[in-house]
Amino acid sequence: MASVGWMVLAALVVGGVAVWLRQRYPGGWRYALSTEYAGQRRDLDAARGRLRELRREAERALAAARAGVDAAERARRSRIAQAETHLARLRSPGRGMLRSSVGRVLWLYEHVLVVEVDGREIECPLPEVSVRDEYSDGIGHVYVALPDGRREMVSVSLEEVPEAEVRRFVVEVFNASADEKIARAERQARVPQAEAELRAAEADTAGQDRARDRMAEVEAGQKSDKRIPRARQELDAAFDRWEQLTGHRPQ
């Protein structure tokens, strides 16, 4: 069975080569295979090869120019995105890194204090929040004054969280609030510059303009390039010679 399979495969290969030869050198096996017409076949192949290589060269140049345009556009979008991200972080830095926590009710982040009350989380910007603590009957009470003027109370069992840890957390909140007031002022002071950088990134099309100019140059150069039309004429002439020889015109 294996030998039969190989025979079928060989027959298919031979058949494919035969079809290719008849299409490439029409007119019969004599013209396609005989050494008598090897020079004519080389003439035909050379004309085909010159045109093919010139077309490939043009395609490569055009593809490179298009890639340059695409790269310039991506670079500009990337610069704009980076400037937008930078500005957004200055305006709204989010929670930031987690610094400390008390049980599952209080979390101190780099920029905010998060308080869980009745199963919901309240996020308080550190510069606008204040806390105080009291202790009685094994319970620690942390009172949080919110930015809108309301107050929330969080109670923590001192059996689960030592009093010293709760007191330390409250001190950390005080210090973090003071630090964040300074950091917020610094961020706000940097916003105008970040806005200017974003406007500059949006306005900067120099890279795109250069890439598009290069693309236009390549397209114009290819339109005025006489080599491909001349190679096409040379190939047509080679086809004419083959047709005169065999009575059949190659494709």
Order of helices and strands: HHHEEEEEEEHHH
**What is the average of the pLDDT values?**
89
How many separate helices? 6
Looking at the structure, what is the overall shape? elongated
Strand percentage lies at 15-25%
Number-wise, the strands total: 7
Distance between the termini: 40 Å
Question: How many whole angstroms does the radius of gyration measure?
Answer: 39 Å
Low-confidence stretches: 6-17
Largest sheet: 4 strands, antiparallel
**Proportion of residues in helical segments:** 55-70%
- Whole-number count of domains: 2
Q: Which structural class matches the secondary elements?
A: alpha+beta
Strand order of the largest sheet: 1-2-3-4
Summarize the structure.
The protein has 251 residues and is of the alpha+beta class. It contains 6 helices and 7 strands. The model is unreliable at 6-17 (pLDDT under 50).
Characterise this structure.
Helices cover 65% and strands 17% of the residues. It is an alpha+beta fold. The chain folds into 2 domains: 2-88 and 207-246; 98-190, PH-domain like. It has a 4-stranded antiparallel sheet with strand order 1-2-3-4, with helices on one face. A 3-stranded antiparallel sheet has the order 5-6-7, with helices on one face. Strand 1 (98-102) and strand 2 (106-109) form a beta hairpin. Helix 3 crosses helix 4 and helix 3 packs antiparallel against helix 6. The longest helix is centred in the N-terminal third of the chain and has 54 residues, at 38-91. The radius of gyration is 39 Å and the shape is elongated.
